[in-house]
Amino acid sequence: MDFASIRIITADVARLVDFYERATGIPAAWATEDFAEINAPSATLALAGTRTVPLFAPGSAHPGENRSVIIEFLVADVDAVHRNLTSLVTEFVAEPTTMPWGNRSLLFRDPDGNLVNFFTPVTPAAIAKFAR
């Protein structure tokens, strides 16, 4: 089994796609006006409109209600990314902080309120874990 993607259901696909394109520097691949993907080398962030929900199961997902999942991106320099995001992000939850497990993390919310973590491994163990 391969982990394929995380999908965010949103009421405004274009707005969220624009945000993630600007935050990650990765252009989205649009399938329809209701579905696009940010394809990073190791995972995909899918962004879908509310009109796609009934195709799976009506009423099964609601935009802007996530408070339990953190969307994470590995970046080369989280402090530099933080400086670049100050004009884009309206809600920083935590400034870059080195975590006990060795990653330097930046937490913020996307326009729909989803929690996002950009992180850089900084200790030898964390660096080894993410070495490619």
Secondary structure layout:
Blueprint: E1 5-10, H1 13-24, E2 29-32, E3 35-39, E4 44-49, H2 53-56, E5 70-74, H3 78-85, E6 91-98, E7 103-109, E8 115-121, H4 124-129
Parallel strand pairs: 1-4, 5-8
Antiparallel strand pairs: 2-3, 3-4, 6-7, 7-8
Features:
single chain; alpha/beta; 4-stranded mixed beta sheet; Signal recognition particle alu RNA binding heterodimer, srp9/1; 2,3-Dihydroxybiphenyl 1,2-Dioxygenase, domain 1; 132 residues
Describe the protein in words.
There is one protein chain. By secondary structure, the chain is of the alpha/beta class. The chain folds into two domains: 1-57, Signal recognition particle alu RNA binding heterodimer, srp9/1; 68-132, Roll (2,3-Dihydroxybiphenyl 1,2-Dioxygenase, domain 1). Helix content is 23%, strand content 36%. It has four helices and eight strands. Strands 1-4-3-2 form a four-stranded mixed beta sheet, covered by helices on one side. Strands 5-8-7-6 form a four-stranded mixed beta sheet. The relative contact order is 0.18.
Summarize this entry quickly:
This protein is of the alpha/beta class.
CATH superfamily of the largest domain: 2,3-Dihydroxybiphenyl 1,2-Dioxygenase, domain 1
**Number of separate helices:** 4
Radius of gyration: 15 Å
| Oligomerization state | single chain
Helix content: 10-25%
Coarse shape: globular
The secondary-structure element order is: EHEEEHEHEEEH
Q: How many independent structural domains?
A: 2
